[in-house]
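Our preliminary data section would be incomplete without showing what the modeling component actually yields. Below, a chain of 167 amino acids is followed by its predicted structure, encoded as tokens that our downstream tools consume directly.
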Amino acid sequence: MLKKIGLLLLVSLSASVAAKPQLVALSDLEPDLQQRRTALVIAQVLEGFHYSQPEIDDQLSRLAFDRYLDALDLNRSFFTQADVEYLSRYRAIFDDSLLNGHLDPPYQIFRFFRSKVEQRVAYAKQLLDNHEFDFTLAESYVFDREDTPWAADEEALDDLWRRRVKN
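Predicted structure:
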């Protein structure tokens, strides 16, 4: 019996190692009917059955928006301040999205984030291939940037990523 459990564990672990993530094209990142229905049910359950019975309103919307951005870019390595200001147009409509099952705003933000990640990865690869790093220069890289402000612009983000790659 113990041998069978060990074999089952080994097979399941080897299967997870062999699993490859599937990259979804940005154009295919759209909410489906099931997700829209789930959003409607979540809204109803929150308002009707949650112990604190929160009101799904603009205040909750702002909180959800801020947490969503933090979940996507906790170390503030992909968005600039201008990006955050651009995305802020969604801050007050997260509640409406949930209540109406209209999930386009969070998906639009995620697609924007994915494009920023792709840009940053391409930039890091370009640095590795073409940049001569000066290791005599006294520079530092802050790993935990959760409490730092967003980069002011793309130039500041480029410098952050140059330091990151150099590190």
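The chain has a mean pLDDT of 83. The first helix runs from residue 2 to 18. Preliminary results of this kind motivate Aim 1 of the renewal.
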